[in-house]
Each structure stands twice: as structure tokens, then as C-alpha cells.
Amino acid sequence: MDSIMTENNTFLELMLHLRTLTNQHSLLVGGCVRDLRLGRQPKDLDVVTDANLDEVSKVLSENGWSIDEAGKQFFVLIASKNGQQFEIALFRKDSTYTDGRRPDFVQVGTMEEDALRRDSTINSLYLDPWTGEFYDPTGKGFKDIQDKIIRFNGKAVERIKEDYLRVFRAYRQAYTLNFTIEKNTLKNIRKYFNEACQKLPPERIRTEIEKMSKV
Question: Of 93, 126, 148, 97, whose CA–CA distance to 24 is shortest?
Fold first, then answer.
């Protein structure tokens, strides 16, 4: 964890700015935390915060960062500098999903609510890069990493219908991480596989296959 802060000056700068704006937390979240827990080098550093995104955008812009606000309605910003890109999001609670891809609207939520809206337990972990403290709000993420299991949060069918791409991501992550897919999760992935193929644009499926194949 220390190496992220000491070796990546751009990320350190980002976290220093967020530290001046946040009330409580700005944490790493998702796949990067999973990879760090596994001793792997993370590819993307995603941050979740309780800072005001308008203030985040203003401060970063004033300090030479490029800000993409295309996802702002979903409480997400993309901040770029020195050839590096970071996703910054609020702790969120999602509404219903009508299109099988993104929520109809989002609300500010707690860490626990933010964790449960994510696909799997191993992707619902958080890390304070300043202290090195990990958080596992679902109570299952650490053990599933230890047991090398991919398990969707809550009801698998609900996670799938929120974003059908999760069907293909689960297969990809099982392959690339050498994990097994939990029995009920796999049952639902198989059940809704054809529906996922019909609902998703072909290029999104192709992207997941190419990531798996490392094309």
C-alpha cells in the first residue's frame, strides 16, 4: 500500500487534494483493492469519497487536472493528469435499473450501501491508502478472496439484471484470477446467459472476451 503513495506521485497529489475536501473518507475501492489484497499490481486506481464533486472538480482543474464530467449525474468524475486517469465517485445507493446497464438515478449512500450495489464480494472492498486499513462491508470479501471464489452480492439475479455485462465479467475474472464461481452465482449466470447476449451490444461482449484473451 505504501508503494502506491510513494511511487505514484500523481495519485499522491490527487489524494492530498481530496484530503482537504473530504469530511471523513476518500478510499480506494473495487478491483484495485482486490488485486492489492491478492498481492497483484492494480491496473486502475478507483476512488470513492464523501467530498463535494463540484469542489473536487474546481480544485483539481485549478491545479492542472483534466476533468471529464460525463458521468456526473451518476456521481462520477474522471480526473486525468500526467497520462494517468482516475475515477472519483461518491459513496452511492442505486435506484432501479431499467435498461440493464445503469441505474435510473443514484443517491448519496453509506459505505455499506455502496458496497452492496457492486457486483461481487471481492470487488466490494475498500482501502484507506493513508493508513493501509482494509474495509469489508459485506463481511464476505476477505474470505472469498482467501477461498478464491467469485460470489455476487445479495441476489445474483438482481446483480445480473442491473448490468448484464456482469455475466461476462464473472467468467473473465474467474479465468484471469484462477478463481471458481460460487454455485448459486454460476447457476444464475447460466440461466440468464442468453438474455445477457440479447440485451448487450455485441461490442461490449467482444471487449470482455478480448480482455480475457489479452488481445
Answer: 126
